[in-house]
Design goal:
single chain; alpha/beta; Rossmann fold; 4 helices; globular
Length: 156
């Protein structure tokens, strides 16, 4: 069985600067810390974290890695910065099968669409620092589209 933790980056600065360079603000950092507590409470620790290269997403991934005692490297994937839904799903399908619980950190509107793609209920909006956890009844990431799915948690 595979578990996917879909996390939207924390609240970021709105100051005038290139979008890729916008850092987290204090409220975003605080909410990310709470999400780490939420995941620890349900005993969900990723064995792989993949992040968008945008500063706010990478900072979110770093906080989660530290607070969840994640021992691996955070992989950066440029596709997680505003690509379309089919490409996002394709990237997830390419995850090596040695990883069973994977956290991906990225952006809306695609992250909300991704949650809705995998779950039958409709999520209107995945908030900043929002997390959806989905379990797939398969041992192969390439088969997640057809696998039975179940929502484990939604922290929004």
């Amino acid at each position: 069985m595979k578990k996917l933790i879909i996390m939207r980056h924390g609240k970021a600065s709105k100051k005038a600067m290139p979008d890729m360079k916008r850092p987290l603000i204090d409220n975003g950092i605080k909410r990310n810390h709470q999400r780490a507590v939420d995941l620890k409470n349900i005993k969900l620790i990723p064995d792989l974290i993949i992040s968008s290269p945008a500063i706010r997403a990478f900072q979110t991934a770093e906080i989660m890695a530290e607070k969840l005692n994640y021992k691996g490297n955070i992989e950066l994937n440029s596709v997680f910065y505003f690509y379309d839904l089919p490409e996002m799903v394709h990237q997830i399908e390419k995850i090596p099968n040695k990883y069973n619980t994977v956290m991906i950190v990225g952006h809306n509107p695609i992250w909300t669409s991704l949650v809705n793609y995998f779950l039958p209920e409709t999520l209107t909006h995945l908030r900043t620092s929002g997390v959806a956890v989905i379990k797939f009844e398969t041992r192969d990431w390439s088969k997640i589209k057809k696998a039975a799915k179940k929502k484990i948690a939604l922290f929004n």
